[in-house]
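Schema walkthrough. Field components (list of strings):
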Amino acid sequence: MKKEIIAVILVLSVLLFPGCWSRREVEDLAIVTAIGIDRMVLGGQEKPKLTVLVARPSQLGGQQANTSAETNADWLVSEVGDTLYDAERKLYRRSPRILRIYHNEMVIIGEDSARNGVQDVFDFLQRHKDIRLRTWMFVSRGDASETMKVMPELENMLSQEISEILVKSMPGTSETLAVDLRRFSEALVTPGWDAVLPVIRTIEPREPKGTKRGEKEAGQTIMLDGLALFHNNRLAGLMPPEEVTGFLYIIGKTQSGTVVLEHKTESGSISRITVLMSRASGEIKPVFREGSLEMEIKIDAEADVVEVQGDAAVGSPDVIRDLNREFSQKVKSIAEKSLDTAQKKYKTDIFGFGKTVHQKYPDYWREIEQEWSEIYPEVPVTVKVDAKIRRTSVIADPFQIR
Amino acid sequence: MKKDEKVSSTQMIFLLVTTITVTGFLFVPSITAQYASRDGWISVGLAATLFGILVALVYTRLGLYFPEKSVVEYAPEIIGKFGGRLIGLLYIFFFIHINAIIVREFGDFLVTAFLPETPLPVFNTVVVLLAAFVVSNGMEVLCRMNQFLFPLFVAAFVFIVFLLTEDVNFGNFLPLMENGIKPVIRGSLVPGAWRGEIVLILMFLPFMNQPREAGKTLVGAVLLIGFFLTLTTATSIAVFGPLLTQNMVFPILELARYVSLGRFLERLEAVVIIVWVAGVTVKVAAFYLAAVLGTAQWLNIKDYRPLVYPVGLIILVYSMALFENSRELVDFLATVFVPYAYLFELGIPMGLLAVALVRYRGGRKQ
Amino acid sequence: MLKKWKNIIKKVFAKPRNESQAIGGGESKEPVAVSLESNIKHLKAVFDRCTDVIFREFEAAIGGGVKTAMIYIDGLVNKEMLTDDLVKALMYDVSGINSSAPVSDPAGYLSRSIIAFTEVKVHDNMMDVVHSLLSGETVLFVDGVSKAFTLSTQDWVQRAVTEPATENVVRGPREGFTENLQTNYTLIRRRIKSSRLKFETMKIGAVTKTAVSVGYIEGIVNNKIVDEVKSRLQRIDTDGILESGYIEEYIEDAPMTVFPTVQATERPDKVAGGLLEGQVAILVDTTPFVLLVPVTFPQLLQASEDYYLRWPFASFIRFIRFVTLNIALLAPPLYIAITTYHQEMLPTPLLISIAAAREGVPFPAFVEALLMETTFEVLREAGVRLPKAVGQAVSIVGALVIGDAAVSAGLVSPAMVIVVALTAISSFSLPSYFGAFSLRILRFPLMALAAALGLFGVMAGLLALLIHLCSLRSFGVPYIAPLAPTSWRDLKDMFFRMPWWSMFTRPRMTGHKEPARQDYMQKPRPPRRRPGGKSGQ
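Field assembly_structure (string):
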């Protein structure tokens, strides 16, 4: 027994003393919080450009935090390489600390790069040990490296700002879909399903300039602006935020968001009634009608009245009944508009029609799988909507101002 | 021989389940999905379990002719001295070889997923040392240790699956059996071979305090293993879809990394390492013990302890010389491993059982 | 080579010190002489240069005066009792007794009729006389009688029964064992009023002759364990036992482990509880620490108070204790492993905070942790050793100077201070001070493993620990029972403390001889009729 223990200790010490292979102290790390991927033409050769945002801990956490200092809370650095991994290693030339990507929150693909196909980007992201499948994906209008130059407004770091907008605020509008690497990858590899990514862009702030406040916050800010639609691995087109709402109705990912109804009251005037979605679900069903494939979309929605401009008596059940009809009409038209954009204009199957056909009619799918991209734009789609208003918030009829 | 060491059938079930599930849940989902795609869970759940029950019945029937002896000891009695001893030798080699593969899997996984800069021999040495420590303490300690760890494994597993319920998409299982039953059967071969690792019972039956319960024990173990492996495969298909799953090397690791609870509880790879390190130690120790016991019985040595370190050294060296790269390992598991394992898990025991059935038709003379 | 050394060592150390040789020449086995003179001479030779041995010769008023001598050790006897009950009685009071009665058995006659003492023993060899004298009895020689009488007059300065220093409770008795074996018997006997409670005493230590007593409840205890304890005790051959710690090291199952396989406690209620569950108690004279065997690791995590508090609180406290156990063992290793190898496992804001806190710290996390942990251990040791008044000064120095100043000087990071402080507090919240020791020691190798191999190292270390724990036994009982081998029935008193009325059985490992502890159906129920209550309320 004693000999065994000594043997174990000896072997362990031989193993341990030269050890510490992968050891890195926290302060020796450059914690990457966002990655931007662009494409550049250098010397006639197409090369990828990698931009990263690195957190500056000394500006962020703990009691020593000193946010008013001149240095930013994150450090922007980009590099061009032969491949993306090569570019990542080239960043090492400029970084005194070792780049570590495992805390990366998002990948922003530049518009140009996305239009040229994301095959190579996709392999880099999938194979990279440190990039997790739960990483938010974006397409940026213009170059990602330009978008990432923007200073955050409320948060310390840009990555925080973007992800908070995406995850916390945008569900309140239902104007974009948060897509992580898993969903993006799944859509890319699954036949009969095309990928979408939220679009991120810079804007000039609308706040007045010239005042003291305006000066201080003069720089550009970022916003999320609709979706980027992919066809196979290429960016096919952009969908504006209003139509994204319809897309979300169809795939059943609506969480909230407003719809404005125009209601003609008894007095003949037009009231504008804003309703806030409280629950919505969508279902896509492939059916065969007279031997040909059709898609049936069924949307159920519930909403509350949140604002009435005009004198519509939303407190009365009759009015509500009328409103329900108009509400359904409106939802249907929104959905159809987004269907039109995706199906007819860009011919991309972002709804996963092909996938549903595959699941429901596998034999039929085997026949048409190769021609699906040609068949898809021609598939007739019917939208059925059952939308209801449930509540009128804390007051019933609008007040009469006399 | 320390046959006075006795373990209960619950302990035996736990031991077999840990032994088989721990490597299974890492490799099986991806390998199965390569053949059976979205029907992988059927392969793992039904086909492989049926196979498992079949071999369980064979082992029980065979083992109960000689409840006090292991296969190395009774094979000569069944088919004669020369053939029997050859079979004993083959089994010893099988256990050592499988063990070397497991040790290699262990190191490869840790290098790939956690500590890429640490050399492989470090992991292999540590796990073989730990297993040697267990083996020199004997079967009871192995079972007791596993009994302590088993609830932790189950808890960790359930925890990960539970946190992923939100991301599960049952649509990924459709359409069921798109290409007929063939891919499902083909996909079940690898998990079947895994299930067949209950072949350990041929060595461990003499340790059971109630050998008559061996049948129930084995079937219980097979069902439990089936449950865990099916759940793993099904979860990874439901979360990632069959196409991503089949291209991943370790789907379970990706599952753990994918967990996110309120953006606070994220990146649960640690849970996988914990289960992996602990479970593989148990597994290596189990096969190691089988190999050492077999060698001692084959050489007619009373105490197996002096053999522990030499055999460990063989396993260690063998594990490092086995494969050139990590894909060879997976390829081996998906192809060569199947007929090889089936020979030892089904072929030889069936043969022995057939001879025994004929020879001992009228009941065996004690 | 090794053999040679072994032989040499054997030659030097093998001979046990024989007491009779030490006393002076093997004559002690001599019988008590008839002549008073020669007896006194003999004892004077034995107790040469022992100023505290008092020889008092006087004439007893029996049959016209018999020369008598009493010998005792000053300080060990009650002098008043001797004066009143022995000297006065013999010199004055017995003169009236008919001394002309024929005395065929003078020794028996004396002890039966003359010496008015509750406990009188008669000896006829000098060895016993010497032993009795040394243990505080008074020896009485009567001229012409070849017997010696020893009277139990023991009375010495002793500490009162006070609250135990190591195991404090909020609810529960405040009595602790004392250094006096008799008092300790009393403390246990007062709790278990049963004739089945046995104490078997033996003397261990060639020079010290310490009384060691094995206590158990017959019928509950497994006799094999009692026999094992006795045989292990009898095997001890040493010059002295000054504390039960000596015994512990001689009889434990696994001498090379850091885990205690014998439990030491100062609490009589704990001992009584253990006896009722089939444990064996080993009481040692001159120490308040009583040993309990067999003991399992989970028992070291249980305090006697668990059984006095109501069960929901007790269960909650047990849960907290499992948490603190893990913190005490694992917090620094995990901190090192995660911050130096697996930074991906921390939530991003936490990682950034830690990184910010470590900015400018000159040492790697491992060295930092080692530094702080060592400092803490030094402080703890200093606090225990120093007088109470100074101890406080030490803690102030520790807290302010080392904690605060080290952080503001940038020597260590605040995060590490938090980890170390948490670990320290956790290790003190474990009920067994001696069990907590083992965790404190194990923390250091685990920290080294964490620094070398990250979480994998920690896990490997923990597994080795688990294998070790699984292989340990305490007097035949697996050390981590009832966890493994699992006894579902015994888990009732493991993570939870089930209500008393639901604990029907004794632990399987120690109390299987008489498993039933109580009757079923004792769960309190509301009475059908409220006593004293008016109907219709």
